[in-house]
Every structure is written in structure tokens, then in C-alpha cells.
Amino acid sequence: MSNLLSYKNYNGTVEYSKEGSCLFGKVVGIKSLLSYEGDSVQELEQDFQNVIDEYLLDCRERNVEPEQPYKGTFNVRISPELHRNIAVYAMEHGKSLNAAVEEAIGNMVGA
């Protein structure tokens, strides 16, 4: 079970405010702060989708490229031993380091 909403390749959190007695969240994976709320799951999902649609429309009207979450590049810090092991694995299998890491991540998440 996931606590993330998804729409048009954007993801958002789902949280509960006991004080406000409502659900709320924010879009993750981009620098812009896009938040939404609702009194029910259906309202939360609708407001989430509205926020994404409004963001994309605003970007189009201002002629700017919308931020894209998960561009496919990220930096990872690992131990030197693990770095050496994956590099050796890659060489032994005729792969680049990136291809070996992508394979390992794919195996981990079932992609």
C-alpha cells in the first residue's frame, strides 16, 4: 500500500492533520511548493490533480518548462568497498557502472 498520489508523472504525499481534521499533502520530486488538501480522500485526490493541472497551465502561460520529477539522474553516496564491488561486477559483465547500478535497482524494485 502506498501513501502517494500519482497524476501526470507527478507524485504527492498524503498526510492527516488531527488539529484541522483534514487530509493534506505536497508534490514531491520538484523544487516548487505545490500543496493541496481535502476533507475526504476523493477531495484530496481532486485537489491534487487540480494543483498539477494549474501548475502546468501556469507554466504554459508563462512559457516556461515545468519541472520534471525524477529525470533519471541522481547522486548516490556508497562505501568505497561497495563502489569497488559494483565496478568489478560491471567490468566482469561487460557493462558500464551506470548499467550495473540500474540493473541492481531494477532487481530491487521489480522493474
Structure description:
The protein has 111 residues and is of the alpha+beta class. The protein has helices spanning 41-61, 80-92, 97-109; strands at 4-7, 10-13, 15-17, 22-28, 35-38. The chain is elongated. The two termini are 17 Å apart.
Distance between the termini: 17 Å
The total strand number stands at 5
Mean pLDDT equals 92
Report low-confidence residues grouped into runs of 5 or more: none
Structural class: alpha+beta
Helical residue percent band:
40-55%
What's the main sheet like? 5 strands, antiparallel
Write down the secondary-structure element order. EEEEEHHH
Radius of gyration: 19 Å
Tell me the β content.
Answer: 15-25%
Bulk shape: elongated
In DSSP terms (H or I, runs of 4 or more residues), the helix count works out at 3
